[in-house]
Design brief:
mainly alpha; globular
Length: 93
């Protein structure tokens, strides 16, 4: 059942992307990079955002939107700032 939900989310994300928009392409490439290396990167994320719990990082599993939400929640910052931090983090991988 979980696989089905993930497939639906991927299809919806893919259909919502404007492939001619370089920002959309970059966001998806960073998302793929983050997901692909997540087990290796989780330690770096923990070092950057020490207030995130191991459970937060396990559940995030490379999902940048979830990660940004947790950064926002744990640090009490604006959503845009959290998204910016996660984007910068994933672009340095």
């Amino acid at each position: 059942m979980v696989g089905c939900v993930c497939s639906i989310i991927v299809v919806r994300l893919s259909s919502a992307v404007d492939w001619n928009n370089s920002q959309d392409k970059e966001r998806l490439m960073n998302e793929d990079k983050l997901k692909g290396k997540w087990k290796q990167v989780a330690g770096k994320a923990k070092a950057k955002w020490g207030k995130l719990t191991d459970d937060d990082l396990k559940i995030a599993d490379g999902n940048s939107e979830y990660l940004a939400g947790k950064v926002q929640e744990r640090y009490g910052i604006a959503r845009e700032e959290a998204e910016k931090q996660v984007k910068e983090f994933s672009s340095r991988l």
